[in-house]
Design brief:
Layout (H helix, E strand, L loop, with lengths): L5 H4 L4 E7 L3 E7 L4 H12 L4 E7 L4 E6 L5 H27 L3
Antiparallel strand pairs: 1-2, 2-4, 3-4
Helix pairs in contact: 2-3
């Protein structure tokens, strides 16, 4: 595994929907660094109401989503952002606040 600079971990992942139709979607995700991030993205996408199943491939940095109902591209992108970026930073901020007594 290549060395990851800490500054890169603080950047939000950039995802784009490369294919979308009534029953499937494919997302290209920049900023996946490990299997833990890929699992978080998969779980976050699976929590969307219109998603039947989702899987994230770390090697190709893509997520494949099977849909049970039409979904908005922004909902897919937000699920990726929430999973891979917001939760880890929120936890870090909470730990820092506790450490300084806030």
């Amino acid at each position: 595994m290549p060395w990851i600079k800490p500054r890169r971990l603080l950047r939000a992942p950039d995802s784009s929907v490369t294919a979308l139709d009534d029953d499937a979607a494919t997302l290209q995700i920049e900023g996946l660094f490990c299997g833990v991030c890929a699992n978080r993205v998969t779980n976050s996408l699976n929590r969307l109401d219109s998603v039947e199943s989702a899987s994230c491939d770390l090697e190709s940095a893509t997520a494949t989503v099977r849909l049970s109902a039409p979904v908005d591209e922004e909902d897919l992108r937000q699920a990726v952002l929430d999973a891979a970026y917001a939760k880890p930073l929120r936890r870090a901020a909470e730990r820092t606040a506790r450490a300084v007594g806030l």
